[in-house]
Design a protein that fits this description.
The protein is of the alpha+beta class and about 200 residues long. It contains six helices and eight strands, in the order βββαββααααβββα. A five-stranded antiparallel beta sheet has the order 5-4-8-7-6, sandwiched between helices. Strands 1-2-3 form a three-stranded antiparallel beta sheet, covered by helices on one side. The chain is rod-shaped, with a radius of gyration of 34 Å. It starts with a strand and ends with a helix.
């Protein structure tokens, strides 16, 4: 072959340990243009090859840990009974299964929809004020808002929202619709009793 060549391979001298070498071979041509000799160089690259192997092994280990971490995260999001989500000030990035079960939307639909579109109109101003506090680094605890279910009804959700240094927002919510309904029923009963008491006193 008249073309220069290079390769990396292993060599073992008698009585020596195996070494990795980088070799190059270049032909030396005569006056007629035919190769008359070859110039070869050998460079011991055992230490750099070992470093490459260490980096490759480290990357594989990191990839394995990341994959395990993602599986654990997904498992947590799937098993959490509360509404768990991660997002930005504009939209959701990741939601748990409970969010889908509580609101009736698929997880993909929730992540592709602006949260404000599902908010009750009367809660949007308070929601904006809450986001402003979170954007300033504050936590929002027990922030209650109504979200529209896929069937058109409203769900009362009590949220705890925490900002992170990476710009993400972590939220955990609990469906308190039944509690709100019970409170409303008790309020009506109390008003009826008060009216009856007022009428009895008036007699």
């Amino acid at each position: 072959d008249r073309e220069p060549g290079e390769s990396r391979h292993r060599l073992r001298a008698p009585g020596e340990t195996e070494r990795w070498v980088w070799s190059t071979v270049a032909p030396v041509s005569g006056a007629d243009g035919e190769p008359r000799a070859f110039v070869a160089t050998l460079v011991d690259v055992t230490s750099s090859k070992a470093a490459e192997d260490d980096v490759r092994a480290l990357n594989q280990e990191l990839a394995r840990r990341v994959e395990e971490g993602l599986r654990e995260r997904d498992r947590f999001f799937d098993l959490a009974r509360d509404l768990v989500c991660v997002g930005t000030l504009d939209r959701l990035l990741l939601v748990g299964r409970a969010c889908s079960e509580t609101l009736g939307y698929t997880t993909d639909a929730l992540c592709s929809t602006d949260v404000r579109e599902t908010l009750h109109p009367d809660d949007r101003e308070a929601y904006g004020a809450m986001l402003a506090r979170v954007a300033a680094g504050e936590r929002a605890i027990d922030f209650v808002s109504r979200l529209r279910h896929e069937d058109g009804t409203w769900r009362w959700i009590s949220w705890s929202v925490v900002p992170s240094g990476a710009g993400a927002i972590y939220g955990m919510g609990r469906d308190v619709t039944e509690v709100r309904q019970q409170e409303e029923e008790l309020r009506h009963v109390a008003e009826e009793l008060r009216d009856e008491l007022d009428q009895a006193v008036a007699r």
